[in-house]
Amino acid sequence: MKKSGSIENKLIPISFFTILIFIWELVARLELVPAYILPGPIRIIKTLFMNLPVLKEHIIVTSLEAIAGFVISAIFAIAICLLMDSITIVKKAIYPLIIVSQTIPIITIAPLFAIWFGFGYLPKVVIVVLVCFFPITISLLEGLSSVDEDLLNLIKSMGANKIQTYKMVKLPAAMPSFFSGLKIAGTYSIMGATIGEWVGGKRGLGVYMLRVKHSFATDKVFATIIVITLLSILLLKVIGIIERKSMPWIYKQELENTEEYK
Amino acid sequence: MYKVEINNVSKSFGQLNTLDDVSLELKENQFVTILGPSGSGKSTLFNIISGLLIPDKGEVLIESEVYTGRTGRVSYMHQKDLLLPWKNILENVCLPLNLKGYSIKEAKIKALNYFKLFGLEGFEKNYPNQLSGGMRQRASLLRTYLFSNDIMLLDEPFGGLDAITKRTMQQWLLEVFEDLKASILFITHDIDEAIFLSDKVYVLSERPASVKAEFEVNIARPRSLDTFTCKEFNEMKKDILDLL
Ligand SMILES: Nc1ncnc2c1ncn2[C@@H]1O[C@H](COP(=O)(O)OP(=O)(O)OP(=O)(O)O)[C@@H](O)[C@H]1O
Ligand SMILES: [Mg+2]
Asked: Considering only CA atoms, which residue is closest to atom 14 of ligand 1?
């Protein structure tokens, strides 16, 4: 029962997706839409592989910016969250600011960073940090404050101090929600770096995208989109693997349950 | 000298009067049960004894020393098993030892000594969600015992178990109690359980809880399944039922 259901769940969207791609290819082959507007999927894939040597450099730059920004923002988020969670007045002061800051669209302030930090890597990393910071902070904070009160009382009645309470109870309890924040941030990070590159720079997928757009090489624009998507998915997978490795108490259980179904 | 002495404790949560002038005593190596209806304030009383809550009135004495509002002296097993899901059973049980400053290795060696007695052998490396309810309670009990074995507060440890497992656990607890030489305060709303296990039973009233009556249980130890059908047992059960 369970198994056939899950196969069905995969099969339906995959076949639907295949049909869409097929129609797209058909539209391009019959030249219903000119190629500089909408090139066909096969042509895009060909372009992608032919341009891979050129793309490689840009991929590395964008990935490094994204990962650097992601890691920095995660570290910042952990520090701020621990401060906010352990000192109420800090939370009262900072939390509303963090929420309000989210109403400013990043794209609108990206040019400002170019003025402040120039056209090197720094403004891109800063944008990634800003984009990633919010989802990580919010989810970690929620994780920290949703810990079972009785568990905290228990460890308190055993004489644990604040650091021990965080180490033994609060941080592990917050892990699942921390990781869901990391995953959201991960998908944003590549996009953040690309936006940063649009504003100006010499290397990176955003820069490359603008360049090929100016020469109306639409197939190359599409190829870049695919690369950006794949990078985001890859990052997500990596975070997922780290998640599984760091929370064996959840995934060990899952594993044994699935074995039972066999 | 009493191990634990509670004198005229009262507690309200806002408008809600929960405890009203409760006094009780626990002697060394005694098993004392607090029997009361659901929601009467039994857990609140334990929170006060363990120092997590401060009573509005009254005081808590432990070995004649005032302990009102001070945590870390008695060990307290909560109504829920409260095992940490991210630690395996051995690590969970070692928690109080680690907090007391034992090294990880020392703590493990000490804790492992008890795994057989507590029926946890072979499950050291399992996570709590891989264990049955009864085992989780035993693990939680072992953790409580390793924190402090002289005074233990046990809040409905078998409340969530099915009738059969519960019986087994009660008998097991009696046996362990003989071995461990601890002074135990035990909460339940199961009359059979109260009489079967205890030397003394305090019956609490509905909220606000006050002590309605106290019974000395003079049934000889060691007790067994036959205890449930003996004459003294049934007489006492009737007395308590009449009271409620
Ligand atoms: N921290 C609290 N704040 C406000 N009300 C509380 C608090 N703790 C307990 N109460 C209330 O006090 C009353 C007694 O609660 P308590 O948990 O002590 O009952 P109990 O006798 O242990 O019940 P049960 O047998 O169901 O465990 C309940 O009505 C509960 O809602
Ligand atoms: Mg209770």
From this structure: B41
Owner of token pair 């995660």 = A74
Report helix, strand or coil for A43: helix
Residue labelled with tokens 């609060």: A170
Same domain, B180 and B223: yes
Same domain, B229 and B155: yes
Whole-number Å distance between alpha carbons of B16 and A126: 53
Q: Which of these, A207, A148, A155, lies nearest to A174 by C-alpha position?
A: A148
Q: Could you tell me if the CB of B18 is within 6 A of ligand 1?
A: yes
pLDDT above 70 coverage of chain A, percent: 94
Residues B171 and B160 in one domain: yes
Q: What are residue B132's phi and psi, to 5 degrees?
A: -75, 165
Contact between chains at B80 and A150 (C-beta distance less than 8 A): yes
Spans of chain B, pLDDT less than 70: none
Among the candidates B129, B147, B165, a domain finishes at B147
Residues B62, B163 within the same domain:
yes
> How far, in Å, CA of B29 to CA of B3, rounded?
9
**What is chain A's mean pLDDT, rounded?**
90
CA atoms of B84 and B72, how far apart (whole Å): 19
Structural domains in chain B (count): 2
Q: So where are chain A's domains?
A: 1-32, 45-261
CATH at residue B60: 3.40.50.300
Least confidently predicted of A29-43, A147-161, A245-259: A245-259
* Amino acid identity for residue B84 in this structure: L
DSSP B54: -
Contact map slice: B 140-159 vs A, CB within 8 A? 147
Q: Which CATH number applies to A45-261? A: 1.10.3720.10
In this structure, the dihedral spanned by the alpha carbons of residues A45, A47, A52 and A53, taken in order and rounded to 10 degrees, is 160
Choose one of B95, B124, B147: the last residue of a domain.
B147
The separation between the first and the last C-alpha atoms of chain B, rounded to the nearest angstrom, is 31
| Full domain range(s) for residue B99 | 81-147
Cα–Cα distance for residue pair B70/B48, rounded to 1 Å: 9
Residue B56 · residue A162 · CB < 8 Å? no
Angle at B129 between CA B126 and CA B131, to 5 degrees: 60
Give CA–CA dist B36/B209, Å, rounded. Answer: 8
Exposure b/e, A142-161, CB count within 10 A at least 16 = b: ebbeebeeebebbbbbbebe
Chain A: residue whose CA lies nearest to B48: A157
Least confident of A22-26, A167-171, B70-74: B70-74
Nearest-neighbour CA in chain B from A249: distance (Å) = 5
